[in-house]
Amino acid sequence: MRKPIIAGNWKMHKSIKEGVAFVEAIKPDVANTDVEVLICAPYTLLQNMVEAAKGSNIKIGAQNMHFEDKGAFTGEVTADMLLEIGVTHVIIGHSERRQYYGETDQTVNLKTKKALAKGLVPVVCVGETLEQREAGETKDVCKTQIVNAFEGIDAKDVPTIVVAYEPIWAIGTGKTASSQDANDVIAYIREVLKDLYTDAVSEEVRIQYGGSVKPANVEEIMNESDIDGALVGGASLLEADFVQLVNF
Ligand SMILES: O=C[C@H](O)COP(=O)(O)O
User: Fold this and answer.
1) Of ligand 1's atoms, which has the minimum distance to the CA of residue 174?
2) Complex ipTM, two decimals?
3) DSSP secondary-structure letter at 154?
4) Which residue range(s) make up the domain with 126?
5) What's the mean pLDDT when you consider all of the chain?
6) Would the CB of 8 count as within 6 Å of ligand 1?
7) Which of 156, 161, 203, 234 has the greatest number of beta carbons closer than 10 A?
8) Of the residues 89, 94, 128, 224, which is catalytic?
9) In total, how many domains does the chain have?
């Protein structure tokens, strides 16, 4: 049985004060959920949010990391640096990183391997553009991204990885893939993982949907057979909405 995971991706939003207040405010309201609760915040907030979340079921994640252990990489952060402050998860290969910061399938693979080696849970993002969807390439694009992301990753480590399927055209646009469409692509991603590994391994991997998830549509999305959670941008910034998402 896969434990659902509802994750907020705050992107470039909130101050330390706001992040800590958010965690303090939602703590009691998410305490009894059966889902894993994760907030991926900007680097500057992480340490304070980890402190604020202590003793609760809220986990704190980063939105990126480098694949090297150290070096002349101005502006970058290592897995060890995240672990040192108590971060447990890291988003890897978000479409905004791929689009604006030169993230490639290869760097996604290197980062995923490094996160696993260090004991961080990678949340690996895949998804197609509108152009690719309209050209009927959604499954091919996702397959290529998954095959490349998992290249050289041992079967024993695969169930640790969380995959997030985010159709790029649905991010921040108010457009969501229909829950059936999203489930169809996610079931296909699971098939790809089955071909790469085994049925048993692929059945253990949690695959989230992301793209304009909000309280009004989360239940329908989560009721689909293969969708194991949501990676939420905009709606995760509001305490009341995030609490509703977690308690869908
Ligand atoms: O990582 C989260 C996604 O990019 C979705 O963002 P959104 O919920 O604002 O559409």
Assistant:
1) 10
2) 0.99
3) -
4) 5-246
5) 97
6) no
7) 161
8) 94
9) 1
The reported pLDDT for the residue numbered 175 is: 83
Q: Catalytic site residue 66?
A: no
**What CATH number is associated with residue 40?**
3.20.20.70
pLDDT tens digits, 86-106 = 999 999 999 999 999 999 999
Active site residue 166: yes
Q: Is 119 in the pocket of ligand 1 (CB under 6 A)?
A: no
pTM, to two decimals: 0.97
For residue 127, say whether it is annotated as part of any ligand binding site. no
Residue nearest to atom 3 of ligand 1 (CA): 233
Q: Kindly report, residue by residue over 203-248, the tens digit of the pLDDT.
A: 999 999 999 999 999 999 999 999 999 999 999 999 999 999 999 9
**Separation between Cα atoms, residue 26 and residue 240, nearest integer Å:** 8
Atom of ligand 1 at shortest range from CA of 171: 10
